[in-house]
Every structure is written in C-alpha cells, then in structure tokens.
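[Q] Does anyone have a clean structure-token version of this?
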Amino acid sequence: MINKLVLENLKHRPIRTLLSTIAIGIQVTMVLTLVGLSQGLLQDQADRARGIGADLMVRAPGSSILSFSTAMPAGILQFVRKQTHVAFATGVLIQPAGGLNSVTGLNLDEFTRLSGGFRFLSGGPFKQPNDVIVDSFYAAQHKTHTGDEITILNRPWHVSGIVEAGMLARVIVRLDVLQDLTSTNDKITSIYVKLDDKNNIATVVDDLKTKLREYPIYSIEEYTSLFSVKNVPMLKEFIGVIIGLGVLVGFLVVFLSMYTAVLERTREIGVLKALGASPGYILSILLRETTLLALAGSVLGILLAYVTRWAIKSAVPGSLIQAIVPAWWPIATGIALFGALVGAIYPGIKAARQDAIEALSYD
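[A] Here you go.
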C-alpha cells in the first residue's frame, strides 16, 4: 500500500520528478565521466606502451610516470645495446606540445626493427625533414589527411602518413629533426629494449639497475601496471573533490525537491495524520520517494555516461578517451543515494512533525 502511494505521489508531479531525476543523473554522470576519463587516458597510455612490442624500457632520471620533460644522453643507448641478452634497442625523444599533447621523435628504421613498424592506413614513412606521421585518432580529431600541412611546435609540418592508433604516440617526427628543433641534440627521453629471450627480462632489469642506478628501469609489464589513479599526483584528490561536489549537488537537488513537496502536500499530510499515520510512516513515504528518485537518477546517469563517451570520442578522440567503468556504477549510485537521503532528512522531519489540525487548515 505504501509503495503504491509513493509511486502515485511521484506520478502526480511528473515535472518535479523528471527534473529531480535528471539533476541526480547529471551528478552521477559527472562522477562516472571523470573516473572514465582518468581510467581511459591511463589505459590508453599503457596500451600504447604495450603496442611497441619492447620487453623493457629505460627512462631519464627524475621522470615521473606521465612526465617525459627530462632527457638523458644518447650515449646511454649505445651502452644499453652492448648489454648481455639485448637483441636491439632504440631511443625516442618526447616533447610536450601543450595540454595533453606531445610530439615523439624517433629513428623510424630502428623503431621498425624493434617493433615491426607502424601500420599505415594512408601515405607512408618520412621522406623530408618536415614530414610528420599522425595516428588515426589525431587525424580524426583534426580532420587531417595525408598531404595536409599542420602546425605543431610553432612550425609547419607535412603529413606523410596516417597510422593505426595504439602504438607509442599520436604524432611522430624524425628524431634528429626534433632534437635540433628543441635544442636537445644527442638527448633522448627513453629507451625501448628488445631481448633475445623474454625469460631474461628480470635478469637484465636487475643488471641494468646496478649499472644505471639513477635511471628508472622497468619491464614493460611493470611499467604499464603503474598507470593507475593512485600513481598520478593529485588525480585521486581531484576525483575526491568531484565526488564531494556530487554529494552536494544531490543534497541540494533533493532538499529543494522534497521541501517543496512537503509544502505542496501539507493538507495531504494532515489527512494522513488525521487517519492515524505516525510520524515514522510520513517520514518513510518521503524517504522512499527519495530512494526511487536517486535510483532512477543513477540509472539515467549510467546511460548518460555512454552518451558522454560517444560525444568525447566523436569530438576529441586524439586528446581524451573515456572508459566505461562498471565497478564505479554502485559507487556512483551510493554517492547519489547518500546525498539524496541527507537532503530529504530535514523536509521529512518537518513533514512528520506537522500538527494534523494545522495541516488540515493550511490553504
């Protein structure tokens, strides 16, 4: 009986119910989109590192997981190549290009020998010093085609080819050209190493760590495992702030909705109390309404997360990638439910404490 009454109350005020559901849905979408973006970007970085096909990597001293702002002498590459069990190694230079974008310089012949090479969807390798290769995501976002001229690092480049996404970088130029452009001659950012046998990875990593003590050295699997929210400075805290805002939004939306509902239904509440309804019964009705609104909003928010993923993929596939993270669905629902119930407590108590005679005389 009480559940039917709750449903009828929500159906009787469809606009308020719809707006409340949408507001809570947006709150859930906001949380899921942020988490999805952080997970998507980190997973993309990990996938591109795996796509190279290297067994281990050596990075410049002082570099962090997502930062390649420091460089090492190119002579380290020759040293690494001479180590036991090293079949081949090549170095790359990564230069930030604003925002989340970067340009990677490499020796294409060496990289092809190590990884098997890029899969060209159109065009081909470098022919001139100002040639650039971009991946399909970058090309889609910037509406770039083979033969076009694009501006990166404040200079024009000729697009010689477009490659399949998922290996190393989105924008690739010749290593010597990027070194000259950035005044980092004989410098590289990281070294990718291919071994004669994968069973020797742990041995080679330990050996290199004793010889290159200041250099971060990882197996590719170990390196990609580091791409998590807890290993990115301030990202976990930022997500916490967004969750806090989500709770606040849910609280304010439901507080306003339920407080208005209590005022609108003053006489109705008076009738229920005159018929013997207890304060707990009245409070139960409002809390059940709130729970339904929160659950409906959460379902809507989860569906909207797919919409935001589609929108981001359509608009900026080369810059942002949003993952769908089902593990966060119950978390986001719990956040919405918590904020909604907190927002409903005061209006619920106000309704439960109303005097039946005063409520019946309310106009």
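[Q] Thanks! Anything notable?
[A] Residues 130 and 157 are 5 Å apart (CA to CA).
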